[in-house]
Amino acid sequence: MSTTAIEARAPSPVAVSLLASVFVVAACGLVYELSAAALSSYVLGDSVLQFSTVIGVYLFAMGVGSWLSRYFERQLPAHFLRIELLVALVGGCLPAMLFLANAYVPGAFRLLLYGGVLAVGTLVGLEIPLVMRILRRDIQLKDLVSQVLTFDYLGALAVSVAFPLVLVPQLGMVRTGLLFGLMNAAVGVWALWLFRHELRRFGAHAAACVLTLAALAVAFVLAERINSLAEDRLYQENIVFAASSPYQRIVVTRGNAGHRLFLNGNLQFAERDEYRYHEALVHPAMAAHGAPRRVAVLGGGDGMAVREILKYPSVEQVTLVELDPNMTALFRDHAQLAALNGQSLRSPKLRIVNTDAFQWLQQPPPAGDDGFYDVIVVDFPDPTNFAIGKLYTQSFYALLSQRLAASGYAVVQTTSPLVARRSFWTVVQTIEAAGLTAMPYHAHVPSFGEWGFVIASRRPWRMPTALPEGLRFLSPDTLPLLFDFPRDMARVPAEVNRLSNQVLVHTYEQEWGKVSGH
């Protein structure tokens, strides 16, 4: 074959540019999809349900867009340019609009969520068929589909890795959406240049590009202001700290109740009464043991539980297993927050391990470490989704049992036995199914209401006769009251929560949904 023939088959600069655009278009579309799913899981809970429904609606909308592309017959470059600008505006602004809707018009959140996903999916579904029809001018049909889909899948791969690891932690959800909106708009500007000789009303197209870029750029600059507007309205207190990590949205506020910590919008503690929660969580198990030397805390990255544990002189080592390093760094280094936990995260007795607690329990202990603990404090968020729900399963408690010393106790925070009665007793039933004795109790924490805990052990739990000095809530005289359940919180039949069914997540959503109105 001659050199001339080879050159004739080589893609034109226009074709190469459009193939590169396919990469960007695919990346942008996936960012909008992931942002919508992540935000809906933050607001509505049950991440599996939210991701499944958002992805399903998005794929359906892409199919609708592909079907509609048959009606675009002439001026394909002009249609492609307009669609790029529309995707840039709707998709790029979608995270910001969802944040604001949740704060100002929460009743409209679902409508805006699925309306936005439908609109973006339809527009993205239109893009690829139009690009393929434009590319048919330069690329043979047998190569066209493979090349377009290759760039499409590569773009999706790049974003699926970058979104949780780089984009959200560094930019946040709002700025990430707007950045990719700007990238979509840039593709529109590039199309304007590539097809400048084919476009009618070139000036109108150019003006649309400029206005779209300007709107997105202004929104990007004001992204923090958008976040502040939404979160100030949502939390109605001065925000001291706000950041997004690969695992959650962390917000700390300060108001009449002092500092309050929110993870993904859910309250974790309030300064004015957190001592009630953490004393109830830690001391019934620690004091009953007598002289615990080695203690593990799973979750509890705020250091409050560690603060209470360090009140026991017998403690030689505390291992804190917290998934999110941003949490432990925040409550170690932020002066006001570190004061709340008594600088416990700087204690020489403390070892911090930033990893998933389930995986940590599965791994063999380090050399020279028998891996057993006298007390294990389990302080995870409530099971609002399956990622957290796995930490309340029979499999998890079976692993926990293997790390518990023969005379040791584990204690698990276990939601409200009043509001979420079946959820509470599901955890009790699950602990017992793992072969452990379960001793449930509860305490009143004004910020949360009636709250539940369960002590798990191999030996019977005995009421301690002494507690550390200086406690503000518990005393040896009042401690027995925590183990008395009135009739409206008494045990009810419950299923075992297993990895294969995660019944607890569904039960929790049903019970708390009645309260929140979800």
Question: Would you write up a description of this structure?
Answer:
Residues 1-9 have low confidence and may be disordered. This protein has helices spanning 3-9, 13-44, 47-68, 76-104, 109-135, 141-194, 202-221, 223-235, 274-289, 304-309, 325-333, 335-340, 357-362, 386-389, 394-403, 421-433, 503-516; strands at residues 238-244, 249-255, 258-263, 266-270, 294-299, 317-321, 350-353, 373-379, 404-413, 437-445, 449-457. The strands form two sheets. A seven-stranded mixed beta sheet has the order 7-6-5-8-9-11-10, sandwiched between helices. It has two domains: 13-231, Growth Hormone, Chain: A (Up-down Bundle); 273-516, Vaccinia Virus protein VP39 (Rossmann fold), CATH 3.40.50.150. It is α/β, with parallel strands linked by helices and 518 residues long. The termini are far apart. S-methyl-5'-thioadenosine binds at residues 248, 322, 356-357. Belongs to the spermidine/spermine synthase family. Pfam families: Spermine_synth.
